Amino acid sequence: MSDTLQKFMFEHSLVRGELVELSDAWSHVLARRRHPKAVSAMLGEMMAAAALLSANLKFNGTIIMQIHGDGPVKLLVVECDAALQLRATAKLADGAEIADDATLQQLVNLHGHGRFAITLDPDDKLPGQQPYQGIVALDGDSVSTVIENYMMRSEQLDTRLWLAADDKVARGLLLQKLPQDGGTATGTEDVDAWNRSVTLASTVSEEELLNTDIMTLLQRLYWEETVRVFEPRHPAFRCSCSRERVGNMLKMLGRDEVEDALNELGKLEIDCDFCGQHYGFDKVDCMQLFSTPTLADAVQPPGSQQH
Ligand SMILES: [Zn+2]
Known about the structure:
Layout: E1 4-10, E2 15-22, H1 24-32, H2 37-56, E3 61-68, E4 73-80, E5 85-92, H3 104-108, E6 115-122, E7 132-137, H4 143-155, E8 158-165, E9 170-177, H5 193-201, H6 206-211, H7 214-222, E10 227-229, E11 236-237, H8 243-253, H9 255-265, E12 268-271, E13 278-281, H10 283-291, H11 295-299
Parallel strand pairs: 5-11
Antiparallel strand pairs: 1-2, 1-10, 2-9, 3-4, 3-6, 4-5, 6-7, 8-9, 12-13
Bound molecules: zinc ion.
Zinc ion (ZN) binds next to loops.
């Protein structure tokens, strides 16, 4: 069965919701690298959250969700594009020993310097345009709390998330209260729908979230409500790495650095952190790289060339 994201809306209210279930996409990430249980759970929860936020945004591009940790976990990254194609990776400190029940604070905010960042990278970027990035401190004991705080602070949107992941599935539920002045309000809204929907969702245990498919969950939670469901979407794993992108990265390192590495190693071997794809660049490949003009050369204004 393919992975599913289901949007829904409570009739006559300003509350919208989404449920997501990732097993196939998640299994691709787990197949690449096994992490300690607590790390894997966090990464899976972030993956579910990235799909939920991506489907929720009116934005044509890639959402990049990152946790920069200062403890045994150095980095967690999840990317999701507008077609709900996802990839994810985690980097641990060398020799990190991580207990199964390690908390978020112990994993990524041991000294209070951990950071959570969301980057929105539009597909149709203009030359020189920087992607939008919001960064916040890691306050909260769970991925869901950290994201809820982020959404409140940077988007001023009341958002609640319930997330869970194990070695088989990553599942998530998102509820969002639409702004009253968003132009959609008619004055006849069911104003209690937000509190009711959140209270009901809060009864779901992690165990239940891990073991219940999303349509059963929706039915079980909101059988007394009039819920409109939309056409389901299907997230999938896909890595956006390519030989060209790796080549561009090498170009950004600069000719001197690449030549030094070639002299030392004979050949550059690069493995994609997300999918494990291997890219090899020998001396001839690297010479070709630096003989083709870069975008930066092409847009450099006349008179500013470096000699
Ligand atoms: Zn890749």
